[in-house]
């Protein structure tokens, strides 16, 4: 929990620093335009990836399989979409990494290990 509070303090400070730096390099109106553009493109991409993942999950369930991979994809896409909707270049980079299928695998492995650790500690109870 402490790391989350620290992240809420450090990330906005870094974002403001990047805004000031980028505004000095390319101009403030270009920075505003880039923020809006990455937000629109990012949310559109997250929606498209989310719908595609939803269809894959439905197909898995129709075949009687548990859509575990699709659930992890959905979590990554949701968090990535939130990051992309948040104004800032650093959060946009993280958001695109989470939304794009080629780079999402890095975080999915971490998420699997985290969920397994929480299940082993009986923080998450799994029943069939």
UniProtKB/TrEMBL annotation:
Protein name: FxsA family protein
Keyword Transmembrane: yes
Keywords: Membrane, Transmembrane, Transmembrane helix
Signal peptide feature range: none
InterPro entries recorded: FxsA (IPR007313)
NCBIfam families: PRK11463.1-2
Species: Ornithinibacillus salinisoli
A Pfam family this chain is assigned to: FxsA
Listed transmembrane segments: 27-46
């Amino acid at each position: 929990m402490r790391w989350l509070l620290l992240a809420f303090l450090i990330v906005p400070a870094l974002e403001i620093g990047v805004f000031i730096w980028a505004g000095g390099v390319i101009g403030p109106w270009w920075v505003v335009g880039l923020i809006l553009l990455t937000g629109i493109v990012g949310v559109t991409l997250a929606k498209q990836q989310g719908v595609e993942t939803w269809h894959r999950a439905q197909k898995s369930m129709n075949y009687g399989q548990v859509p575990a991979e699709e659930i992890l994809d959905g979590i990554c896409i949701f968090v990535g979409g939130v990051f992309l909707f948040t104004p800032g270049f650093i959060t946009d980079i993280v958001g695109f990494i989470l939304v794009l299928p080629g780079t999402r695998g890095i975080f999915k492995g971490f998420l699997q290990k985290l969920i397994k650790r929480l299940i082993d500690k009986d923080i998450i109870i799994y029943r069939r």
